Amino acid sequence: QLPNGYFFNLQVYPPGTVANPTTSVRIVATGRRSATSTEDMRAIETYVRPSNLTDFYRFSDASVSIDAETFGKIYSNANVTHSGTAHADIFAEGSISGNPTLVDGAQAYSNGNFPTSKIKNHPIDFSKFLVSLADIKRAAQVGGVYLNLSGKTGWRIIFDANGTFTAAPCTGSNLQNSPAPTCTPATTYTVPSNGAVYTDVDAIVSGPVNGRVTVGSGQNIVVAGNTGPVTAGDDVLGLVAYSDLWVAAYAPSQLTWTAAVLVQTNTWHSAGSGHGSGSLMTFTGSSATAKGGSFTEYDNRIYGYDPNLQFLSPPWFPAIDDTYTVTFFREVAPPAAGTLEAAI
After folding, report:
1. In sequence order, what are the residues at sequence separation of 6 or more whose Cβ sits closer than 8 angstroms to the Cβ of residue 290?
2. Main-chain phi, psi angles of 178, to 5 degrees
3. What number of other Cβ atoms are within 10 A of residue 228's Cβ?
4. Where are the alpha helices (DSSP H) in the chain?
5. 156 and 168 in contact (C-beta within 8 Å)?
6. Following DSSP, what letter does each residue of 298-340 receive, concatenated?
7. Where does the pLDDT of residue 344 fall: very low under 50, low under 70, confident under 90, or very high at 90 and above?
8. Dihedral sign (CA 35, 37, 38, 41)
9. CB atoms within 10 A of CB 39
10. Contact at 8 Å (CB) between 159 and 204?
11. Backbone φ, ψ for residue 232 (5° rounding)
12. What's the sign of the alpha-carbon dihedral 200, 289, 259, 297?
């Protein structure tokens, strides 16, 4: 009972239970004006989870420059230059320049002046995300797929829509440059149930992903071809690189890829001098990098945010400390009369 005489009850369901099979905490709040009347009872259901890097289309520890249309939230611990159209909020601990066109209710917040309802605790310490790669490596060693072979410089990982992937060791240096490296022999694996695939050397990735998996590399991730989930909202791909993420010089001139990206110490970019006149790269997902980054080797670039990442983050992706996201909120029918008293 509250001091004003109203009564309330909170039912809290942890994630991964029969009453709540999601990854969020489910809360049902029921209120009424007296202890005896149930005629004016109302109930609100909400799902809350720790905020994740994948809540942002673009997250950078350094200044970032964007000259495209963007559809997800952008955050920088430094400055943001945005000369395109933004469909979601822009947050900068420093300045915002470029005169972005803000649509669909998007707002620009500079100099760390953020509403607490948007981002409570900041600046956000990017160094805390470094633990993610160590988590992926341990998980790959104990229940996932750990790719480690002495004398090789990388692994070519090709996903298949049937829920498997092949991995072949590669030789050579600068595996993002043309020609494509020689990688053989290939071994077939099932996408692991714990979602962890790791190698200490470069990982070259392509193909349709059936499952929930994160590929971690102790060096670079190289995107070599079209890749992404088979079924959006059910399958998900994460890519975590210690050094850089590259789109390969030998990637197709019309490239489509969907993933959540975390580059821990440097940035994402494309290799080579260009992918030809009329080349187009379409990226959908989320990208967090220590530095800025761009894909100017493609004549045309489309950047989209995957809203499914708000509900399904890749395995082993880090949360943002002390920041929470409401993923769902609605009014529901109140519990039947007497059930709350019985529960209490």
Report:
1. 60, 61, 62, 126, 263, 264, 265, 266, 267
2. -80, 150
3. 20
4. 131-142, 339-343
5. yes
6. SSEEEEE--GGGGT-PPTTPPEEEEEEEEEEEEEEPPPPTTHH
7. very low
8. negative
9. 8
10. no
11. -60, 135
12. negative
Query: Which token pair is 214?
Result: 């994160």
Residue percentage of the chain with pLDDT more than 90: 63
The percentage of the chain sitting over the pLDDT mark of 70, rounded to a whole number, equals 96
Query: Cα(120)–Cα(325) distance, rounded to whole angstroms?
Result: 11
Structure tokens given for 230 = 């088979």
pLDDT tens-digit series, residues 301-338: 888 999 999 878 899 988 776 667 777 889 998 877 66
CA dist., res. 211 & res. 32, Å (int): 44
- The C-alpha angle with vertex 297 and arms to 258 and 279, in degrees rounded to 5, equals 70
Is 21 in contact with 269 (CB distance < 8 Å)?
no
DSSP state of 61: S
Here the tokens at position 269 are 């970019």
Please determine, for residue 169, whether its predicted confidence score (pLDDT) is greater than 50: yes
Q: Which amino acid is at 57?
A: Y
